[in-house]
Structure formats: structure tokens, C-alpha cells
Amino acid sequence: MGTSWTSQKPVPDVDLTQKTVIVTGANTGIGYETAKTLAQLGAKVIVACRSEAKANEAMERMKMEHSEEKADDKKSKVEIKANDLDVEFMTLDLSSIASTMSFVEEFKAKGLPLHILVCNAGMAYGGEVKTADGFELHFQVNYLSHFLLTLHLLPVLKASRGNAKIILVSSMAYRGAGWHEDNMQSINKGQLSKYGSTKLYQIMEMFTLAEKLDGFGIGVFSLHPGFVDTDIVKRENQQVSGSMKFFVGMLNSMGAMQIQFFA
Ligand SMILES: NC(=O)c1ccc[n+]([C@@H]2O[C@H](COP(=O)([O-])OP(=O)(O)OC[C@H]3O[C@@H](n4cnc5c(N)ncnc54)[C@H](OP(=O)(O)O)[C@@H]3O)[C@@H](O)[C@H]2O)c1
């Protein structure tokens, strides 16, 4: 199955009023656009980020762009449903199990329903780092903590009684991943292999969860967003090659961002 994100308004007449959505890593890049767009479609969006300052700045920008797009609908990518954007910051540092579990508890304490969980946050070139919890950094941020988050939020998703969605933002880099049965965290493997493994695990998670949740009214999806010129290859102190930066920039300049679903 597949769909394209073009410069035309691509989203059919979707109304997410009364829906609650969590987007991880919503302060920049793909997460930012996702959070803004879902909020424009009427959803209440939880902007789940590790930095409150960055999240606040992002939410201000979303609101400013929303006002401009409302005033001139040629600028918007969707049929706008929201008058004002309902976006709210909550702290989530996926490199920490304690932070991930605090997020879960705080979200549950709000008593909000949950209709869509977008596991978007991710990192690719973080070097060889172990977290305070003892896991390889990419493994914990991209895969493990999102898995924990998803499992603990399942009761809330189930309570939304049908049509809930779990979206796992993966990458076609999974194709370059090695399957190291005795080294699941890809320690001492190359950066792209390490990153690719985490994206492979997300796809495996998608198949397993979709099977186990059959009949609960929860769809599980995983996708490759296309090559998008975001911060992912531009962060300081990252081990990313110049050729990779050039490759992403070149592909991005070639045209529309494409969204492809794996299943
Ligand atoms: N861009 C592409 O071409 C591409 C291709 C395939 C797949 N993807 C996937 O798309 C997703 C979004 O990537 P992007 O390109 O939008 O990258 P990005 O611009 O670098 O954004 C990544 C987001 O993840 C957040 N994040 C990183 N570490 C985190 C942590 N420990 N806890 C919580 N949040 C954390 C970042 O927060 P900070 O700003 O605070 O660091 C940021 O909000 C990722 O899963 C990536 O693997 C991207």
C-alpha cells in the first residue's frame, strides 16, 4: 500500500476533532510537520519532546504558520479544520527509561483518550554511546523506549474503542541492517548498520503488534518517510559523512517528499 505527499493538498477530507494524538520528537523535522498537520486537522496533539525550550519554540512557530495558512489556503497542505491549534508539550527523553515511564504516568493522569500514537523521534549518527540504563543509545531511543511507550499506552489506545493507530516511523535503512542475533544492539557495528537495525526492529514490531492486536480496533503501521532534508544528518558531534549529507540534500532538492508505507 502507498500514498504520496505532494505539493497539492494530499489528505482527503479528514476531521480529527475530538481525537488525541501523541507525536514524539515533534519539535523539528518530520515530527514537527506531522504534529502541525494533525493539529490543523483538528486533533489535540501532545508534543512529546526532550527539550521544553525547543518544544515551546516549535509550538509558537506552528501557531504562526497556522495563522498564515488559515488566511491563505494555498499555503496549507490540508483542509484546515482547527480554528486554533491545540498543541501541548510533555517531557519525553527516550534515552531514559525513567523519563519514558514518567511520560506514560503523566499522560495517563491527564485522563485523555488516545487515538493515534506517532513514534517518530529518532537519531542516526550518535557514535558508540551507552545510556545510563546500559543500552546502546540508538537501540534505546529509536526502538526500545518507543516499544515501552507503546506497550504501556495500549490500554488507553484500546479504550478509544476502534480506529486507533500506532505509527512507527522507520526507514528504508533497515535494508542495510545486519541481523546480529548475538548482538541485538549492534554494538561496534557501523553507524548506518546500527541505525538500520533499530529501524528493522520497528518493522518487526509492526508485524507482531498488528497480529496480536487483531480484533482490538488498533491499526499498526510502519513507514519510510522518503529522504527528507531535516536535522538528522546535520547535528553537531555526529559521525555523518559529507557524502551522506550531500545525498540527502540532493534527493530533497529533486522534488516532493514521498511517504511510503511498508504495510
Ligand atoms: N530525514 C530522513 O531522510 C529520514 C529518512 C528515513 C527515516 N527517517 C526517520 O524519521 C524520523 C524523524 O527524523 P527527522 O529526519 O525528522 O530527524 P530530526 O529532524 O533530527 O528530528 C528528530 C527528532 O527526534 C528527537 N529525539 C532525538 N533523540 C531523542 C531522545 N533521546 N528523546 C526524545 N526525542 C529525541 C529530536 O529531538 P531534539 O531536537 O531535542 O534532538 C527531534 O525532535 C526518525 O525516526 C528517522 O529515523 C528520516
UniProtKB/TrEMBL annotation:
<keyword id="KW-0560">Oxidoreductase</keyword>
<dbReference type="InterPro" id="IPR036291">
    <property type="entry name" value="NAD(P)-bd_dom_sf"/>
</dbReference>
<dbReference type="GO" id="GO:0016491">
    <property type="term" value="F:oxidoreductase activity"/>
</dbReference>
<dbReference type="InterPro" id="IPR002347">
    <property type="entry name" value="SDR_fam"/>
</dbReference>
<comment type="similarity">
    <text>Belongs to the short-chain dehydrogenases/reductases (SDR) family.</text>
</comment>
<dbReference type="Pfam" id="PF00106">
    <property type="entry name" value="adh_short"/>
</dbReference>
<protein>
    <submittedName>
        <fullName>Uncharacterized protein</fullName>
    </submittedName>
</protein>
